[in-house]
Amino acid sequence: MKQDMYPAGTNPVHSAVVKLFYSRAARHLFTNAWYSLLSNLDRGAAIRFLNYGYASPDGEQVALQAVDEPDRYAIQLYHHVVSGTAIAGKDVLEVGSGRGGGASYVARYLHPRSYTGLDICKPAIRFSKARYADQDNLAFRVGDALSLPFANDSFDVVINVESAQHYGDMGRFLDEVHRVLRPGGDFLMACFEDPSKDVFPRECLARSRLRLVKEDDITANVARALELDGARRTALAVEIVPRPLLGLSHEFAGIPGTQLHASFANGECPYYCFTCRKD
Q1: Coil, strand, or helix at residue 188?
Q2: Which CATH code is given to the segment(s) 12-277?
Q3: Fewest CB atoms within 10 A around its CB: which of 47, 153, 164, 207?
Q4: DSSP letters of 82-101?
């Protein structure tokens, strides 16, 4: 992503902050700080998902309960990531569970025996524990993706949706995934390339001990989802985020007109969905 491309009308302060957002130094510290701030600002619990979504090219939609309809495109990304893998009755770990919406969806709709959501952001975990306390097969805990706090061979499935690109060492993360997966277990990841931060998930997976089963380029699907969901995302930002931070929030949310959305729409940052296995 070229760092001199900013949304029209962005003032110099916004430009500086957005440039920081795309810097290598921001990969871990700045992103976590933004997640923590968002958790504190969203007192009405309006934001349950932090991913960019998925729209089917033929307009096909996942059947959802009415309560889940506002988050349709974010849910459809989770659905696409897990749809080829048997989840029912399995022990599942999600690394980078964020605000817990994806964990709640999979736990309710696909019926794993247990689903553990792990995130390094303490406010996000506090939010998730309170929001989804009524789901018996769902638990959350604070933890580091590069040092997973679980024993070897603990899970049948590990899920990672739009989180690994923020880690400082994706190779180390994949080693940890391999360690905690049971033999024959599946790793399901949605991740986009970001050349500005040296993030290349395909190359990292090729060097890992996990065997690639399926790779799916969903860049156009993600760009389309951001377009279809843009008005809702914009309204949420205006409602929750202080005005001086709106430029950053729009960029973070991938609203059409931002550098992030353009990088998906023009294919500059390809977005992939992977299914891998521990043999």
Answers
A1: strand
A2: 3.40.50.150
A3: 207
A4: HTTS--TT-EEEEES-TTSH
